Amino acid sequence: MQESLKKYENRPSFENTDAYADEYLSLHLPSLGLNHLPLDLSLATHIERLMLQENELVDLPEFMTALFNLTKLVLDRNKFTEIPAIVEQLTTLKLLDMNSLELTEISDSIGRLTALIELGFEQNKITGLSAELSKLTQLRTFSIIYNSVPCLPAGLTVLTNLELLCLHSNRFSEFPAGITSFSRLTKLTISDNFFKKELPNEISRLTTLIELHLDNTGLTTIPTEISLMTQLTTLYINANPFSDLPCNFTNLQKLEDLDISDLQFTYDGLERVFHLQNLTSLLASNIFSKQTKLHPVPASISRLTKLGKMTFGKNGIEVLPKEFFMLTSLHLLHLVENEIREIPPEISMLTKYAEKTTFPFMA
Questions:
Q1: Which of 173, 227, 282, 315 could form a disulfide bond with 251, CB atoms 3.0-4.6 angstroms apart?
Q2: How many other β-carbons are positioned within 10 Å of the β-carbon of residue 345?
C-alpha cells in the first residue's frame, strides 16, 4: 500500500501525456483485504480515478474530501450497507460504482452529486429509489439490475440525457411510463420483471433506441407502435406468453440480433421474422410445440443471407427445405430436439462454414 502511494510524491511534469494519465491520475487498490484507508491517501490530491473494489471496507474516511480532483470512484464488492456519508461531498465525481454490496436503499444525499454521468447500484438489496436522483441531470448511464425495486420515481423524467438504462431483474409490475421521456435512450434492459399491463403505445417515442430487452416480462402482446422504433438492432422478446407479432414488425429492417425463443408462434409471425434481411443472430428455439410442429419450414428463410448464428431446436421440424442450405453465412447452428430423421447431404453446404453445428441426435 505504501509503495502504491509513494509514486505521487515526486510525480513528473508531463501532465498532458497518456503515460501520466494512466500512471499518476489513477490509483488501483483492488483485492487487498483493506478494512480502512490509510491517511497517506490524502496526499494523492491530484488523482482522478480511485479503484477500491473487492476489499473489506465498511465506510470511507473524512479525509477523502482532500481528493478534490476525483471523478471516478469504484467501490463494488466491499462491505458497505449504506452509501458512506462522505460520498455526498465528492461533488466532482462523474462515475460512482457501488455494485455488489449490501445496500437496501439509495439515500437522498445522492442528489448532491450533480456531476455524475455514470451510476451503478447493481446486485444490491435496494427496495426503492430516492426522488433526489432527479437532480442528476447529466446522467447518461444508470444501472440497478438485480435488486427489488418496484417502480421509478415520477420525477426521473427530467433525466433526458440518459442513454443506457438497465432495470432487469427487479420487481416492476408494469413498464415504467416515465421511460418514454428519455428521448436519447439507446439501450434499455427491463427483462425478468413481470408486467401486469401491456407496453404503453408511447414506447414508440424511443426512436433512438438501438437495444431493447423485454424477455421474461409476462407480455401477452407486442404493440404495433414498436414498428416505429426503426433504429433497433437488438431485440430480446423471448420467454413471454404472446403468440404473434404485429404485421408491421417487418419495418424493423435494422435488426441484427433477435431472440424469440420460448414463445408460441404462428407461421405468419415467423414469415415476418424471415423478412428481416439484416439478421445476423436468430434465437428461435421452442416456438412451435410437438403438437403444432413447424412443418414445413417456410421457404422465405432463404432471405436471411447474413445470418451467422441460429438456434432452431424443439420446433418439431421433420424436414429442412432446400432454401435452408442457402444460409452459407452460418457459423453456429443448433437444431437439437427436432424430428429430423436423417441429415440431408446438402448440409455439407453449411457445415464447411460452421464452427459448431448440433443436430437432433448430437450432444
A1: 227
A2: 8
